[in-house]
């Protein structure tokens, strides 16, 4: 049975109307946001803003917004000139989750890495490293149930950071600035359902410490951010201090569910960044407690659009040791912006696109791995056969591919 598109026509039209109304509401809320921003634009207001944030924290009001560091909140900061030389390291990962219908239970992590010697004219160094997990300790939770996808994803995130630190360490003597990039935010969050949570956190912080020791410009790149950190700060500033509470901060207020990106789309020219902010969250408090002040996570928004395009706002997260080096921040801006202009079809950093390509496991490669595992099991005297359900799905997909290729179905 195929999708009956004619039954969706009216629904799709209503969907378009809904998003048009949402866009109009967003414009109205952005105007309010800028009224609040402009009222606190002068640098002299920074102590007052910091006092208001601290008051919300002291009242245990559940504040999850931004805290400016030391820059005026409406200022836009241009990038430095593009450095003549630099070293950029980026990693990304992918996974094959456990599938109980396969011949053997396992999961796979594959970590891709690219190292660019900017300014040298030399081709990038690329590599990928697969890790196969099949022992019971990796596949079962403490209650002997199957591990969830969130566990595999957490282990992949830590493997990405560990690989980034390892490769950056090996290139610590290369051209500076030395930039290390990940796709996504830097705040590693592992819930209680991750059985080896503490061990993973230890590895993650050790990798960050290694990057700090070599003076790397560590950056987590968040494309199409939906965060509301600054909007929550504005919501706080929009109310009288005496009314600050969990209920009042949890209410939407005049800004509603406004996100940060459309606010700064009106401020930033291509290549520019906002002021630096700290995300006030329990996870970031844990980062500061475990890694010290230098590993507290800060962020800024940046416009990576080309000169003739509408704003494309991204969030860049950096640890405090990077935030304290404003010349390094300006160089990172320039290099990130340059990376985002290298692919005409996308305003996404080339190094992150390439590391993703290196990490991704194609469907055919996954099937080849299953075949390898079945052969190995048979060689060792263990019958290896997928479930009937899995074999039926494989057969159906093969028939479909033959049809798409114009071959007879047999």
Description:
There is one protein chain. The protein has helices at 9-39, 46-58, 136-139, 149-170, 197-213, 229-237, 246-250, 260-264, 282-291, 320-323, 326-340, 350-359, 363-379, 388-404; strands at residues 66-68, 86-96, 107-118, 125-133, 178-183, 217-222, 277-279, 297-303, 313-319. With 410 residues, the chain is an alpha+beta fold. The protein folds into two domains: 25-361, no CATH class; 363-404, no CATH class. The chain has a nine-stranded mixed β-sheet with strand order 1-7-8-9-6-5-2-3-4, with helices on both faces.
Helix content: 40-55%
Beta-strand content bin: 15-25%
The end-to-end distance, rounded to whole angstroms, is 21 Å
Gross morphology = globular
Rg from Cα:
24 Å
If you average the pLDDT, what whole number results? 92
What is the helix/strand order? HHEEEEHHEHEHHHEHEEHHHHH
Low-confidence stretches: 387-392, 406-410
What is the number of E strands? 9
Brief account:
By secondary structure, the chain is α+β, with helices and mostly antiparallel strands. The chain has helices at 9-39, 46-58, 136-139, 149-170, 197-213, 229-237, 246-250, 260-264, 282-291, 320-323, 326-340, 350-359, 363-379, 388-404; strands at residues 66-68, 86-96, 107-118, 125-133, 178-183, 217-222, 277-279, 297-303, 313-319.
């Amino acid at each position: 049975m195929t999708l009956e598109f004619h039954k969706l026509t009216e629904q799709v039209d209503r969907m378009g109307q809904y998003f048009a109304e949402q866009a109009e509401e967003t414009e109205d809320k952005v105007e309010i946001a800028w009224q609040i921003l402009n009222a606190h634009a002068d640098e002299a207001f920074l102590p007052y803003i910091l006092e208001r944030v601290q008051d919300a924290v002291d009242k245990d009001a559940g504040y999850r917004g931004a805290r400016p560091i030391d820059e005026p909140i409406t200022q836009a900061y241009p990038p430095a000139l593009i450095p003549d030389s630099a070293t950029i390291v980026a990693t990304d990962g992918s996974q094959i989750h456990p599938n109980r219908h396969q011949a053997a239970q396992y999961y796979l992590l594959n970590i891709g890495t690219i190292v660019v010697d900017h300014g040298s004219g030399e081709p990038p160094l690329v590599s990928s490293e697969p890790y196969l997990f099949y022992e019971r300790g990796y596949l079962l939770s403490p209650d002997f149930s199957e591990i969830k996808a969130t566990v595999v994803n957490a282990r992949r995130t830590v493997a990405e950071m560990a690989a980034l630190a390892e490769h950056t360490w090996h290139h610590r003597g290369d051209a500076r600035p030395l930039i290390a990039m990940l796709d996504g935010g830097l705040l590693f969050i592992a819930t209680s359902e991750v059985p080896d949570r503490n061990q993973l956190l230890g590895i993650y912080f050790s990798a960050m410490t290694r990057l700090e020791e070599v003076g790397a410009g560590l950056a987590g790149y968040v494309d199409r951010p939906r965060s509301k950190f600054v909007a929550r700060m504005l919501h706080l500033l929009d109310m009288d201090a005496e009314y600050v509470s969990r209920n009042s901060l949890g209410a939407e207020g005049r800004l509603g569910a406004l996100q940060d990106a459309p606010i700064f789309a009106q401020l930033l020219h291509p290549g520019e960044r906002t002021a630096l902010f700290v995300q006030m969250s329990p996870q970031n408090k844990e980062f500061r407690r475990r890694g010290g002040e230098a590993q507290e996570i800060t962020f800024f928004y940046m416009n990576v659009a080309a000169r003739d395009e509408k704003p494309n706002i991204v969030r860049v997260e950096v640890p405090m040791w990077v935030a304290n080096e404003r010349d390094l921040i300006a160089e990172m801006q320039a290099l990130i912006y340059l990376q985002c202009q290298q692919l005409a079809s996308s305003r996404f950093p080339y190094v992150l696109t390439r590391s993703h390509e290196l990490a991704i496991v194609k469907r055919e490669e996954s099937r080849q791995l299953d075949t390898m595992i079945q052969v190995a099991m048979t060689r060792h005297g263990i019958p290896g056969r997928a479930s009937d359900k899995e074999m039926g799905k494989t057969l159906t997909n093969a028939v479909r591919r033959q049809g798409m290729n114009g071959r007879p179905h047999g």
